[in-house]
């Protein structure tokens, strides 16, 4: 099974004339990347389109591993590296740029151009490490989380209360903005004061930023809720949404484009901004 939009599937199909293929069998293909990191840097991919390592079958894994070891041996014979990295990444946060499982076989030499990618030290506490060990051990044995059902229900109540408060804050922001807009736009019209209309526009934009941020945080906590409800790998009673799902990365606290485009933000605030600008332009021209 292949994906016509996947560049690695195109190589597997033999339809990329620029690909420098070095090995092929029924289950895997090895080729050079377009920009090798070091001399002899090779990619090994399964012929079947598989996005992430979690989707590999036992058969996929066996054939991919055997070809990777075969390529590593050939690289050692051919270019005599002083060391070798075998790197396999999954997901954007792990620097996967093509969603087709691939293994980097990277020959290494002292002082080569590869930079150190392993962080110094750790941010994990002893409690974090112990919690992770318990959960991963349970998952490996087919067991369940060590968090009790009652603790999980209480955790969900805590998270849901935050979601409710964020939704209430969004409603309150809109309620506060209405009299501000009415006062500034009304004053601008009755007193021919375009500057006051622009002041109202600024107020609308500030409240829009607050509301979009409330929405961003609400979505993050809803993701946390889903992970806790699904017995995901979330520390007991954690209220940090950065530990859940798509939030597992360095968090950006500014609203994203999808937050601005939401039905609860753009359709509410954009007409108010446009109205204020129209009032300011019209009365500036009349004045």
From TrEMBL:
PROSITE patterns linked to this entry: HIT_2
InterPro entries for this protein: Histidine_triad_HIT (IPR001310), HIT-like (IPR011146), HIT-like_sf (IPR036265)
Transmembrane spans: 196-215, 268-286
Chain span(s) of sequence motif Histidine triad motif: 100-104
Domain spans labelled HIT: 7-115
Keywords recorded for this protein, A-Z: Membrane, Transmembrane, Transmembrane helix
Keyword Iron-sulfur in annotation: no
Keyword Transmembrane helix: yes
UniProt name for this protein: Histidine triad (HIT) family protein
Organism: Nocardia kruczakiae
